[in-house]
Design goal:
Radius of gyration: 23 Å
Number of helices: 19
Strand content: under 5%
CATH architecture of the largest domain: Orthogonal Bundle
Distance between the termini: 37 Å
CATH class of the largest domain: Mainly Alpha
Length: about 425
């Protein structure tokens, strides 16, 4: 080997550039640079879902001019709540790379528990709600314990729950198979006739203003905190752009909903829970631990994270959301019945999370995935209903959409590995 080859220094590796610094130094040009970098690295985010939604809306509107009406928005906003709540709980489990197949049956069981307590035994409806949510959380924690402590695969544990809890639900409902729910307590706000501020036009606009204001205040506080700490922060121009886009979307949706009856109370509850759970996952140490365990279990153990406790907790959260979802689904018919444990609810909830961008392989996703996925699913279902297609076509189309979402997820992960970002 020549002296020249020995003395030649190795090529320097370009240091990673923080996206906030890139935007601050290059202005809006930095957005384009950062977007290209993410796409090349397989970090597609919500882009495939947004493109898919635009295609879906255009396709159905071209076939039926009544599709793009305010009544469609109200339908999607209301009937997507039950599946959306199921999906939010599943996002926590999917972030660990696991699955909970029991949520569909557990939602039906929870509605039955509420009905038996509030109707058959005359217990205060709000107390019955609390007991119902605790029932879902305890059952979820029990299944999580069997998985985390005994080492039984989550697929097997929750598959057993899928069968077992459905049997308990049928036993509670009795020979009639249905218990009508009272128009009181939480059930009143989960009904299709219940709208925020009694459907007053100001209701939707107030919510839009609160959402925009909270985002603006939160971004300004974070910017000040990071500036004071001397670390990269979002420039004011980016904050203004983000808040402006949110304002356009929020007030636009509020305007559309107000053309019908306003925003359903059930949707308000769903959005509030999305904000809370998003904060928990992105802004708390617990959320960081969930992502850490989902990304690398062994590294999490060495970092001192109680992996078993995290696993049990996410299944408890999934169970609690399944219980609330069961009440929301029962609210659409004002009755707790066998349909509350419809296996299709489970499939649609998993599909919503995956279509929205949560990875089946763990470590990547957000609770807002549930909202995006539900928008896709309910938009398709409403469009198919308008076209008069049969249920078999509905199943085939939804299966194709889910498969496409999983393929996109797999290709994105492969690209990330190639780019050294997985």
């Amino acid at each position: 080997m020549s002296k020249h080859s020995i003395d030649t220094p190795a090529p320097a590796v370009a240091p990673a550039i923080d996206p906030r610094l890139l935007v601050r130094e290059e202005g809006f040009k930095g957005y384009a640079t950062e977007f290209k970098r993410k796409v090349r690295g397989g970090e597609l985010g919500s882009l495939p879902v947004v493109i898919g939604l635009i295609i879906i809306w255009l396709a159905f509107s071209l076939n039926d001019s009544t599709y793009l009406k305010a009544s469609t928005a109200t339908y999607v906003a209301y009937y997507g709540v039950g599946i959306g709540l199921l999906s939010v709980g599943l996002v926590f489990v999917l972030l660990l790379g696991e699955i909970d197949l029991s949520v569909g049956s557990l939602s039906g069981l929870s509605a039955a528990v509420f009905a038996v307590l509030a109707v058959n035994h005359g217990i205060n409806p709000w107390v019955a709600v609390l007991v119902t949510l605790l029932t879902g959380a305890v059952i979820g924690a029990l299944q999580g314990t069997v998985f985390a402590k005994l080492g039984v695969p989550a697929f097997v544990v929750t598959l057993a729950g899928f069968l077992g809890w459905q049997g308990v639900m049928l036993w509670l409902l009795g020979t009639t198979g249905t218990i009508n729910l009272p128009d009181t307590g939480l059930n009143h706000y989960l009904q299709g006739s219940s709208f925020f501020l009694n459907g007053d036009i100001a209701g939707a606009y107030i919510l839009a203003a609160l959402g925009v204001a909270s985002m603006l205040i939160g971004n300004i506080i974070e910017q000040g905190r990071r500036r004071k700490a001397g670390v990269p922060f979002r420039p004011t121009s980016e904050i203004g752009l983000r808040v402006g886009l949110l304002a356009v979307g929020a007030f636009g949706i509020a305007y559309i909903l107000n053309q019908d009856r306003g925003i359903p109370d059930a949707t308000v509850l769903f959005l509030a829970l999305l904000i809370i759970t998003d904060f928990v996952l992105r802004r708390t140490s617990y959320g960081r631990k969930v992502f850490a365990v989902g990304g690398n279990i062994e590294a999490s153990r060495r970092a001192g994270i109680n992996v078993a406790a995290i696993r049990i907790s996410v299944f408890a959260i999934s169970g609690a959301f399944a219980a609330l979802a069961g009440m929301a689904i029962a609210g659409t018919t004002n009755a707790a019945g066998q349909g509350g444990a419809d296996p299709n609810n489970l499939m649609m909830a998993i599909a919503a999370a995956v279509i929205g961008g949560t990875s089946l392989f763990g470590g990547r996703g957000r609770v807002w995935s549930a909202l995006l996925g539900v928008l896709v699913i309910e938009s398709i279902q409403y469009g198919l209903n308008l076209l008069g297609l049969t249920q078999d076509a509905n199943y085939m189309i939804m299966g194709a959409v889910l498969l496409a979402a999983v393929i996109v997820d797999s290709l994105a992960r492969r690209t990330q590995k190639s780019a050294g970002r997985a």
